[in-house]
Write a structure and sequence with these properties.
single chain, 821 residues, alpha+beta, 8-stranded mixed β-sheet, 5-stranded antiparallel β-sheet, 25% helix
């Protein structure tokens, strides 16, 4: 074996010193979840700074010829028992601060490690320690020492992605505090007995620090709180700062900046309060601070302990398919979804069974490859989270997210990355048939669309404990808001059959424009399954809006069954003797002073202008659009809502928004009927080859994909939605080999044209469910339960245990698989 010093000299040109901007992967293997704590440690390439576990470093050496690797191993230190604790485990302190990982906050265990580092040269695995370098030539010692020190000092990529601690109470000085304008209007505020000047509410009362106006605060997600009068006052006046009156003490108070949209510090608060006759030094706290309210929410016993099975001793489980995933800072939604997806055979065969092929075909930087990172299911998925969230305004952050939205986002990424070969998302894909019947003409219209999730409504009026339970639930909520920790947890009990009935019952459309009678009339819409997927996902619509359009979460218990038969919801298609509605678009709204003209379309001619695009300007009620925008909806969605409801008012527009929030083109610009192209586009404009390939991969022909993209201004999401809404129009066109034959359809049914969907009996069994704890999808915690070999297992981030009492009635997303007949 050659002398190690000579070997180092021969590979010295491949050893680099990390520079600012280099991505150093020293915490996680690029091809697995191996880390320095894993058996064999982690090998960091001293040229590319990619990390590899002991089982993959030889593969990287053989592929690249790289020989020098920086080897890191970490061994966990044993914890010393607390001498003051009889059991060695001191009692957990109740959190007093809205924070994670710092004194007074929610406790996060920090492990301590001993670290060992050295240089390893492949293929003979010759080792070089820092001490060994002292005997080597200066040029070798200097270069290798600098490289080792640089790797050790560099922030790892995972460190920049992971939240080590979070403090929700760290507040910044408001930019308005120093020069806040205060009106000399003679207003003096008493030290107690405050009421909202508008609604007389006596809780959650805020005083504006500019004019002394006393008003109620915002309404919370669960419907409690105020009536938004303090916020409305800011919108009318622009006065930015308000103080919560019941929180004033000699030490400070809650101050909110509406302009900065955050809790802030006001260094001149005593002076600002004295202006309105309030002596801060004599005030006492009479209401819980915003921090205390949020801590109370995060400690809510009823839902959190039941879902996490906190009251029982759970037996840890280990082995294949039983590996937990670390929480990277509000990543429990990702952990829960991925644990469930990788119990589905399609995802296992795509990303696990083909592991050798995937790794052999991985690019030079596998951390940026979707297939490679999708293969990784293990300990701490920093690279995977960074990749799937890249470019997304929400999933790229460390904020909590909606598991249902992430599931759809991930399925969309799978669709885009599986243009050839097997596509595991087909396991969830199914077709929905919508039948609309005009009540005046009794003529019908049939459309089909693709979907991946069944959204199940929750009919609160069908609760079985109405007489006692709902009153008890309301009373318990009121007592909890008042700080009564002994208040019981009471929730509405909704039969699953009532939810299914609400899904299948006809929906009344009051503003339906009927092409048969050429005017708006009433219609009924019925939704049925045009195909049954191999795996069915059901979302319980717990997050909804109250009568005042304030978002809230429904605290309900639903007796979700272990087996499900949806055969009765199979679509039947056009009935014998049933007439269809003519395919005529409704007339667009237009300004009275604009002459209705047409411009020659690509298929029109001077004698027949039926395909002309009208040059019309829609007249929209600006006040209605403004009201919708103030609720937080996108401008273009608000414009479409007002347009498609014919300027009939805020209620109709809001109903339209609620019915179309999940549309792919919800926030896309308004395109008038008859205008198949957006401004500046023509049917002959070049189309994106990437968009064409994506649609073709879903089972459509290139001609069909071209037609869809031209009809939607070359916008992919709108084109996919368009193509599934115009399947009848595409029947005359060639369907690609993705379409099914009649022989392949269950029971000889005619296959839906176009998309590649699987079909079979509509009988299912429950195999997993994801539960959410908290008052909003933007906060709280997710866990999942998965049935493994007839044993329910709870996956609570990295904790994996046998489930004793799986709370199937409190789930948010339910996963069923088809029962083979």
């Amino acid at each position: 074996m050659a002398d190690v010093g000579e070997v180092l000299m021969s590979v010295l040109s491949t050893i680099r010193v990390p520079k600012p901007g280099d991505r150093v992967h020293k915490d996680e293997c690029a091809l697995s979840f191996s880390s320095p704590e894993s058996e064999g440690g982690l090998y960091v390439c001293m040229n590319s700074f990619l990390g590899f576990g002991s089982q993959y470093v030889d593969r990287h050496h053989a592929r690249t010829g790289q020989r020098a690797y920086f080897h890191i191993t970490r061994t966990r230190k044993t914890k010393e028992d607390d001498n003051n604790s009889g059991s060695g485990h001191p009692p957990k302190k109740k959190p007093t601060r809205l924070a994670i990982g710092i004194e007074g906050g929610f406790d996060v265990e920090q492990e301590q490690y001993e670290e060992d580092v050295k240089v390893v040269i492949l293929p003979d695995r010759q080792e070089v320690t820092s001490e060994d370098l002292g005997t080597m030539p200066d040029v070798v010692r200097e270069r290798v020492s600098l490289s080792m020190a640089g790797i050790m000092a560099a922030d790892s990529v995972s460190h920049t992605l992971q939240v080590q601690q979070w403090d929700g109470e760290v507040r910044q000085e408001s930019r308005h505090a120093a020069d806040l304008k205060q009106l000399d209007n003679g207003v003096k505020i008493p030290p107690s007995g405050w009421r909202c000047d508008v609604c007389d509410l006596q809780e959650n009362i805020w005083m504006n620090l500019t004019d002394g106006k006393v008003l109620c605060g915002r309404r919370y997600f669960d419907g409690s709180g105020g009536n938004n009068h303090a916020l409305l006052h800011f919108q009318e006046t622009g006065y930015p700062l308000a103080v919560k009156l019941g929180t004033i003490t000699p030490d400070g108070a809650d101050v909110y900046s509406y302009d900065e949209d955050d809790m802030v510090l006001d260094s001149k608060l005593p002076e600002h309060l004295a202006h309105f006759g309030i002596n801060m030094m004599t005030m006492e706290k009479t209401e819980r601070t915003m921090t205390e309210l949020e801590i109370a929410v995060n400690q809510r016993v009823g839902e959190w302990e039941v879902i996490q099975e906190s009251g029982t001793t759970l037996r840890p489980m280990f082995g294949p398919g039983l590996t937990g995933m670390k929480n990277l800072g509000n990543s429990c939604y990702l952990n829960s979804v991925m644990q469930v997806l990788f119990t589905v055979p399609d995802f296992q065969s795509k990303y696990v069974s083909n592991i050798d092929k995937i790794i052999d075909e991985a690019p030079s930087d596998p951390t940026q490859d979707f297939k490679t990172q999708g293969d990784q299911i293990g300990i701490a998925p920093q690279m995977f989270k960074a990749l799937v969230g890249r470019g997304h305004p929400e999933f790229s952050t460390n904020r909590q997210q909606d598991a249902q939205e992430f599931l759809l986002h991930f399925i969309n990424m799978v669709e885009r990355n599986c243009r050839s070969g097997s596509n595991p998302s087909e396991a969830f894909r199914f077709l929905v048939e919508e039948r609309i019947v005009c009540q005046q003409s009794q003529k019908a219209k049939y459309t089909q669309r693709v979907d991946y999730i069944v959204q199940l409504p929750v009919p609160m009026d069908q609760a079985t404990n109405t007489g006692e339970g709902l009153m008890g639930y309301s009373e318990a909520e009121r007592r909890r808001e008042e700080g009564d920790s002994s208040a019981p947890t009471v929730r509405a009990q909704i039969p699953f059959t009532a939810c299914m009935a609400a899904l299948s019952e006809p929906e009344i459309l009051t503003d339906f424009w009927s092409s048969a009678v050429q005017t708006k009339t009433t219609a009924t819409k019925t939704t049925r399954f045009a195909s049954f997927p191999d795996h069915l996902v059901i979302q319980i619509k717990k997050f909804t809006f109250g009568l005042d359009w304030v978002p809230k979460k429904l605290d309900v218990s639903i007796d979700v069954p272990d087996t499900l038969d949806l055969s009765a919801l199979l679509a039947t298609g056009q009935q014998p003797g049933e007439e269809l509605l003519p395919e005529v678009a409704p007339p667009p709204l237009m300004t009275p002073d604009v002459e209705v003209k047409g411009i020659l379309g690509s298929h029109g001619n001077e004698e027949d202008d039926s395909l002309y695009s009208p040059l019309l300007s829609p007249v929209l009620d600006d006040s209605t659009v403004s009201q919708l925008c103030e609720m937080g909806f996108p401008l273009e969605a608000c414009r479409k809502a007002v347009y498609y409801t014919g300027n009939t008012g805020i209620d109709a527009a809001m109903n339209w928004i609620m019915s179309h929030m999940d549309d792919p083109d919800f926030a896309a610009p308004l395109v008038l009927p008859g205008c198949s192209s957006g401004a500046g586009t023509t049917p002959t404009e070049s189309l994106s080859e990437e968009h064409l390939a994506t649609i073709v991969s879903m089972g459509f022909s290139r001609d069909q994909a071209t037609k869809a993209l031209r009809a939607t201004s070359n916008v992919l999401d709108r084109a996919v939605d368009w193509i599934f809404s115009h399947l009848d129009d595409l029947e005359s066109m060639d369907v690609s080999e993705g379409g099914r034959s009649a022989a392949e359809s269950e029971g000889g049914r005619d296959p839906p044209p176009g998309p590649r969907v699987r079909d079979g009996p509509g009988k299912y069994e429950l195999f997993a469910f994801i539960s959410h704890m908290g008052t909003s999808t933007m906060c709280g915690h997710y866990v999942c339960h998965i049935k493994k070999d007839q044993q329910w297992v709870i996956f609570n981030d990295q904790k994996v245990c046998a489930s004793e009492k799986p709370p199937k009635d409190l789930g948010y997303l339910y996963f069923y698989r088809r029962v083979a007949e």
